[in-house]
Fold this sequence. Notes:
The complex is a heterodimer. By secondary structure, chain A is mainly alpha-helical. Chain A contains 14 helices and no strands. By secondary structure, chain B is mostly helical. In chain B, about 75% of the residues lie in helices and about 0% in strands. Chain B has helices at about 1-20, 20-30, 30-45, 85-120, 120-135, 140-150, 155-180, 185-190, 195-235, 245-250, 260-285, 290. The longest helix of chain B is centred in the last third of the chain and has 38 residues, at about 195-235. Chain B is elongated and about 80 Å long. Classes of the chains: A mainly alpha, B mainly alpha. At the A-B interface, helix 1, helix 2, helix 6, helix 7 and helix 8 of A face helix 5, helix 6, helix 9 and helix 11 of B.
Amino acid sequence: MFAYVVRRVLATxxxxxxxxxxxxxxxHLSPGDPAAIIAGxxxxxxxxxxxxxxxGLDQPLYIQFGTWLWHLVRGDLGISIFTNLPVSHLxxxxxxxxxxLTVSTLVVSIAAAIPLGVVAAWKxxxxxDRLVMIFAVLGFSVPIFVLAYVLIYLFAIxxxxxxxxxxxxxxxxxxxxxxxxxxxxxxxxxxYTALVARITRASMLDVLAQDYIRTAQxxxxxxxxxxxxxxxxxxxxxxxxxxxxxxxxxxxxxxVTETVFAIPGLGRLTVDAILRRDxxxxxxxxxxxxxxYVVINLLVDLxxxxxxxxxxx
Amino acid sequence: xxVVQAELPVKTAVASERRSGAWAYVRRHPTIVLGGALLxxxxxxxxxxxxxxxxxxxxxxxxxRLKWPSATHWFGTDxxxxxxxxxTIYGTRVSLTVGLSVAVLATALGLLFGLITGFNRWADAIGxxxxxxxxxxxxxxxxxxxxxxxxxxxxxxxxxITVAEVPRVxxxxxxxxxxxxxxxxxxxxxxxxTSYFRILSRHILPNTLAPLLVQxxxxxxxxxxxxxxxxxxxxxxxxxxxxxxxxxxxxxxxxQVSYYIVLFPGLMLSLAVLAINLVGDGxxxxxxxxxARRM
Lengths: 313, 295
């Protein structure tokens, strides 16, 4: 078991190395002079030269990569071109809203998706099942920002039940903190909920067709004991897998959700960085988000042994 | 015995389909027909955009700014007095072009990488590490990063989204190739001295087409959403081309007073994506009956 954990942790190194190389190569893959593109159309020759030195673009490629990687390993993500502040500092400032948004979305989505999938599988073919499947197809089809605007219109403009946009830190009160998170979490979580519900249903259908389920029912166990204790427990591995993989949807969605709801998080930082072509920030954010994604999927992988004792390493 | 029983209804179903033709097809694949019809309607909107009561989607009319939907401006006008109906209809062109181009390019490239890595251990070891790395970067972020560095143009949008989609297709094709490689008929072909190229083109390639077709439709749907997201964030289709994402981006700050600017392109985008997803779901069910019962 311990050897497996070590092996699995080591296996994330080549993955993160590819991410790092990609993020580094981005600047050099683009056609034309990256310094000129970052500087924009109105830049003078001095501006371009300044950016070129600031990014170290006047050095040979292998030295650039070496320096960049060395800084990266020490947690230095470079300096923002626009604000002249360290990228790691800018990111740290913006982490809280994004973490609050994604965690609340995760909790709400999983809490909704698993019961939906379980009931749909249990009542397969019934109208409940159909409704869940229609919800799943719609959830995949309505883009986050469209749903976000519909929610804002219904619950903030028409009825005034919830705030239109913005973010309030939990330090300034739990109630405003939560009320500002309701709509963004719903909008962000829709696709994810649809995905998890769909996989839960499929995985449960597989398990419910097994002989031991019939045995459990035959010996007179109650429905919930069969569904939760026997079926859901055995269907847990694919569900955990999709919960991990689906986090990519949440990360992509955060950028849009924060823009619609004017939440000052990492997504908003990304959009500002795009508009200002502040490349070190974009690089830093991609690295951070990818690292989070890799770590979450590592944890999911390691959780298999807890979820299913038959899996041993 | 079970096998015999299972075969009978299939035969009668095929026979009845021959007899009543189109209607039976609709009954058996309602989602493909519904989604297909929606898509055709969308394609018609895109092709015949100039003849559908539209005006120049870029024409400014400062005295008609922010007019609510009416008989003259069906979807209202935006803050520059441009006709939202015309812009939305013309925007269909951008979305469908991006969806189709990315689907074709990404499946073609993914097929190429998948075949190579599936059949060569060295290429597999290196190629799949690269794909693993790229897949751990959320696809919208890859597209954003690429767009931030290139100048806004439709071609660059297609390129950026394609790069983000290729790893998933490569993995899919590689998976299919790996299972096929162990099949007796491939082994037999190898043993009888068939060339690699012939095995790939005659035995492997045809078997990857069904899953690729399904994957291709889902890629088209996700590409359309990504294009809209990029444009919405200001990193996509250039502002002088009306795209659904652009229109929504322009309506963003005015949402509380003139929500119709965001509503109509958003509705069209959802419909288009729904249409493609319906076709994709239907195709998957039709091509993989084993999976169909479960999904």
